[in-house]
Design goal:
By secondary structure, the chain is mainly beta. It folds into 2 domains: 30 residues; 432 residues, Tachylectin-2, Chain A, CATH 2.115.10. Helix content is 5%, strand content 31%. The chain contains 2 helices and 27 strands. The strands form 7 sheets. Strands 4, 5, 6, 7 and 8 form a 5-stranded antiparallel sheet that branches. A 5-stranded antiparallel sheet has the order 9-10-11-12-13, with no helix packed on it. Strand 19 and strand 20 form a beta hairpin. The longest helix has 17 residues. The protein is globular, with a radius of gyration of 22 Å. The two termini are 18 Å apart.
Length: 469
């Protein structure tokens, strides 16, 4: 009934526009804001002291003693119950050098859209909790020594020099449990396979990192083959047979890097048959057209290998980046594409405001004459119709914007509804209010039908999850 009401509201709004109402013209054909909930920036979970290698910002001082910020969400999966979610922060504070004390975690949450709050839940049962505590998250670890290179847990002291100078001993819990940190991997995407195991897309390697459902690494991280010039066979180039960034811990020489830092597996989708992963690079590789992002596609979960197929996604601008990628079917996918700006363009204090934050649909069998994927716009996140004042700003029939620098979480809820979450880069990003650290905002939006035929087959809209959802 709620969705019917939303659709009627949307239809009524469009009719009023046609009759010359004062409703903003930009609302026509725009996605509609259905729900919004907020997790405050100042949200923490227990853990080793963090932020010792980065400076504070926007009113937050570092370090965070005996705490880990619950922030920076870069991926989302369905949770244990309908309306609950697993959200994954990235490597912590934005770089390898600043994040050796930031644990890699996945948190379980429930956005209570009726109150506008986001609450922690038990990651297995879905029961609400009073605070973020061990039952509400998993922490990635390498207890069986599957990772073939040195990680922070192998060291006596954190790598690098702490803010204020000097070295700091690695927390005993990290060493004892071989917990993974933001200096080991920069995880930006997560998918859950049919067997319940988790696959993470990393930017440092880039690597695929495979763990069990408790976040324990099951096998050596899987590197990405360089398929330039080899459309049907693996092997890469004479310079480097792999895709490797300057932060790759197994890089033979700096001159061998062929992908910029922070340019790896930003988006990664699992097809609805739950057999293949499709990883989307955030930045162009050396030698690629500057607007091209390659989907290094068809990593087979059955053979644990790349199939050799690649697909080209063309950005609207060379300076734009990928935010996320998720599957609609075995061939159709949604992709967030964004500029690096943040903040409202009407506020002169934002010198680089947000101007381009969009969701596109692509199909692997729908390409142009050059073989590039053809994009179809699904939603403009800077032009979201809000006729019922879901944003609670005291206005109706207005446009709601999602003007954050990084928007990196996308989940299909049904054939007309998407969940979108920002990465707040705590404590640095200030997209919502100038000078104030961004919160984590959860919104659902109503769109035109995502697939031409509405298929309610169990699991289709849950990125490969089962009928519990």
């Amino acid at each position: 009934m709620k969705m019917i009401a939303h659709r009627l509201s949307r239809a009524a709004g469009s009719l009023v526009v046609g009759l010359g109402s004062i409703v903003a013209a930009s609302a026509v054909n725009a996605a509609e804001l259905l729900d919004r909930a907020v997790l405050p920036a100042a949200t923490f979970a227990p853990g080793p002291t963090s932020g010792q290698f980065t400076s504070g910002a926007n009113g937050f001082a570092t370090p965070f003693v005996n705490q880990q910020p619950v922030q920076g969400f870069s991926a989302v999966l369905p949770g244990p119950r309908k309306g609950t979610y697993l959200v994954m922060p990235d490597n912590g504070f934005g770089s390898k050098s600043s994040s050796p004390d930031a644990l890699l975690r996945v948190y379980a949450v429930k956005p209570e859209f009726n109150t506008g709050k986001v609450v922690p839940i038990n990651r297995l049962s879905g029961d609400e909790l009073g605070s973020f505590s061990p039952p509400s998250y998993i922490t990635l670890s390498d207890p069986w020594h599957r990772i073939p290179f040195t990680i922070v847990a192998d060291l006596a002291e954190y790598p690098g020099t702490a803010i204020g100078g000097g070295k700091i001993a690695v927390d005993s819990s990290i060493r004892a449990r071989r917990l993974l940190t933001g200096a080991d991997f920069d995880i930006e995407s997560i998918r859950r396979a049919a067997d319940g195991s988790l696959w993470f897309g990393d930017e440092f390697g880039p690597y695929l990192v495979h763990t069990d459902s408790d976040g324990r690494v099951l096998e050596a991280p899987i590197p990405m083959p360089n398929l330039r010039g080899f459309p049907s066979t693996l092997g890469g180039t004479a310079i480097n047979p792999l895709v490797q960034s300057p932060s790759n811990p197994q890089l033979a020489s700096a001159s061998n890097a062929n992908l910029p830092d922070s340019g790896g597996l930003e988006g990664m989708a699992l097809n609805t048959s739950r057999t293949k992963l499709y990883g989307l690079l955030e930045k162009a590789m050396s030698g690629d057209p500057v607007r091209e992002r390659r989907i290094m596609s068809e990593f087979s979960l059955l053979s644990h290998s790349y199939t050799g197929k690649t697909f080209a996604y063309i950005m609207d601008d060379p300076g734009y980046s990928i935010g996320d990628m998720t599957a609609l079917s075995d061939k159709e996918f949604l992709i967030i594409e964004r500029d690096p700006g943040q903040g409202d363009a009407s506020d002169p204090r934002f010198t680089s405001p947000a101007r381009f934050k969009k969701i596109f649909k692509v199909a692997l069998d729908h390409v142009d004459t050059n073989g590039n994927l053809i994009k179809e716009e699904v939603a403009d996140l800077l032009n979201i119709y809000d006729p019922r004042d879901v944003a609670a700003d005291g206005r109706i029939n207005t446009v709601f914007t999602f003007p954050f620098q990084t928007i990196e979480d996308l989940l299909v809820l049904d054939n007309n509804t998407l969940l979108v979450i920002n990465d707040n880069n705590f404590p640095f990003s200030v997209g919502r209010a100038f000078g104030a650290a961004d919160n984590n905002e959860f919104i659902t939006i109503h769109t035109a039908p995502l697939l031409s035929k509405d298929d309610d087959d169990c699991g289709r809209w849950r990125d490969g999850d089962d009928c519990r959802h």
